[in-house]
Amino acid sequence: MSETAQLKIGDKTYDLPVIEGTEGEKAIDISKLRDQSGYVTLDIGYKNTGATKSAITFLDGEVGILKYRGYPIEQLAEKSTFIEVAYLLIYGKLPTTDQLQAFEFEISHHTLVHEDMKKFFDGFPSGSHPMGQLSSLIGALAAFNPSSLKQGLSAEEINIEIIKLIAKMSTIVSWIYKKSLGHPVIYPRNKYDYVTNFMHMTFGQRTEDVEIDPVVVSAMNKLLILHADHEQNCSTSTVRIVGSSDANLYASISAGISALWGPLHGGANQAVVEMLQKIKEDGGDVDKWVAKAKDKNDPFRLMGFGHRVYKNFDPRAKIIKKACDDILEKLGINDETLEIAKKLEEVALSDPYFVERKLYPNVDFYSGIIYTALGFPTEMFTVLFALGRLPGWIAQWKEMKANKEPIGRPRQIYVGETNKDYTDIKTR
Ligand code: CMC
Q: How many angstroms separate the CA atoms of 48 and 320, rounded?
């Protein structure tokens, strides 16, 4: 018999169904509570609210487990490629050789971006933040693809938009970087795999084939895989909620990019490296900065530490820390900020403030150091996070559509003024 929860308000008792997920997670279904009782639930910041039932990503923050479609992140980061993981997230299964080849073929044949899109770059002020550019350019893709605006697109039509978006995002990201340098953009080459093509457009030249170090391609694949999905985080919830109004795919993803930008979310990777540089310039006294982070009168927080869901460790951070050591060694780079990061981690992990609050390094703590080693400037870091998160956003948008989820529209508890009469401006 299925379990029910009972809620007692005054002398009335309400039976609420209990929902259990495939990994044993339990939830109390309150969707009918207001109709039955007149009450809503209040949960500011959705700290204890399940917004959907999803079959894409499972994470257990208490033990530090992350799986995409049932596959542990450790295995995917070690053995798979970003594009294979994208297929897994979006279509639900690991592809066969033929399916993967067809997927890669389709993507590589949609990487060209409409030439008029280049005109946007003339309008952005020089030095404008790449995330502002990215969200505008991805939103603008809807205008360049009017086919995506039709209501009631078939599964096949939706799939074409998905392929186009994955393909064009890498071209747009690399162009944002090239434009930031004042360099000419580099066009995609179909012969390359997705990540090599992206590195070619980012670091390559117009006329020659550049040798992209396989170590770099492998590190990039790993980073993108680790960022590919993370269930109902701020940006993903944004994508789902925007999409729930029947807004097109490009508009929904553009909104997700904006949500990711914040330093409490994806913007943390830029903030971490800026923080490490600041500590270095300040003489490298790690204890002083840990004390600042603990001081409630000081707004400073240790960027790259803490997570809403992980209260043990972030499994992505473990993989990234190792990848960081490997790549710096392979590329022969001696990075002083890495030493500061390690010292900071050591001090923070033994400090009762961080231990009691279960604050561990998160995915962003080490990713910026790898991006720097690969040659990316700090302002590009969150854009790279977005590139990695794209398949997750798409998978979640697609699932929300397939489940025919209703428009996202939370309730509130009004706490403002009541019953005021309008007064003439001269008498106020
Ligand atoms: N440095 C110092 N204190 C912290 C930190 C930190 N980085 N993070 C949390 N705390 C303290 C916080 O002050 C609070 O203390 P108290 O209980 O005494 O008031 C307690 O820990 C709980 O923090 P919270 O802000 O209530 O937790 P939250 O779940 O609302 O926020 C967070 C999670 C990630 C926004 C937060 O830990 C944070 O701001 N971290 C730094 C930014 C960061 O690295 N963000 C990237 C997250 S991972 C990438 C992604 O998936 O987005």
A: 28
CB count within 10 Å of CB 164 equals: 22
Ligand 1, atom 45, lies closest to the CA of: 264
Which pLDDT belongs to residue 335?
81
pLDDT tens column, 218-243: 999 999 999 999 999 999 999 999 99
Q: Please check the confidence at residue 328 and state whether its pLDDT lies above 90.
A: no
304 lines ligand 1 (CB under 6 A): yes
Question: Residue type at 256?
Answer: G
Ligand 1, atom 28, lies closest to the CA of 308
pLDDT tens, position by position, 179-195: 999 999 999 998 899 99
Q: Other C-beta atoms within 10 Å of 280: how many?
A: 13
Query: How many C-beta atoms lie closer than 10 Å to residue 65's C-beta?
Result: 16
Element at 288 (helix H, strand E): helix 286-294
Task: DSSP for 309-364, please give it.
Answer: S-SS--HHHHHHHHHHHHHHHHTT---HHHHHHHHHHHHHHHSHHHHHTT--B-TH
Highest mean pLDDT (candidates 83-97, 303-317, 339-353): 83-97
For 69, 369, 370, 383, the CA distances from 376, given in Å and listed in that order, are: 31, 10, 9, 10
Choosing from 301, 356, 360 the residue with most ligand 1 atoms within 8 A of its CB, the one to mutate for a pocket test is 301
Looking up tokens 């995409």 gives 68
Judge whether residue 207 has pLDDT over 70.
Answer: no
* Residue 233 Cβ contacting ligand 1 at under 6 Å: yes
Mean pLDDT for the chain overall: 94
Q: Please compute the mean of the pLDDT values over residues 244-251 and round it to a whole number.
A: 97
pLDDT tens for each residue of 137-184: 999 999 999 989 988 899 999 999 999 999 999 999 999 999 999 999
Q: Which residue has the tokens 């279904």?
A: 29
Contact 14, 6 (CB under 8 A): yes
3-state secondary structure of 11: coil
Ligand 1 close to Cβ of residue 295 (< 6 A): no
Domains of the chain, first to last: 4-50 (2.20.28), 66-226+249-256 (1.10.580.10)
How high is the pLDDT of residue 212? 83
Mutate to test the pocket of ligand 1, among 47, 264, 272, 273 (most ligand atoms within 8 A of CB): 264
pTM higher than the cut 0.90: yes
Please work out whether the CB of residue 320 comes within 6 Å of at least one atom of ligand 1. Answer: no
72 - beta bridge partners? Answer: 67
Using DSSP bridges, classify how beta strands 26-28 and 57-60 pair: parallel, antiparallel or unpaired. Answer: unpaired
* C-alpha 29 chain-centroid distance: 27
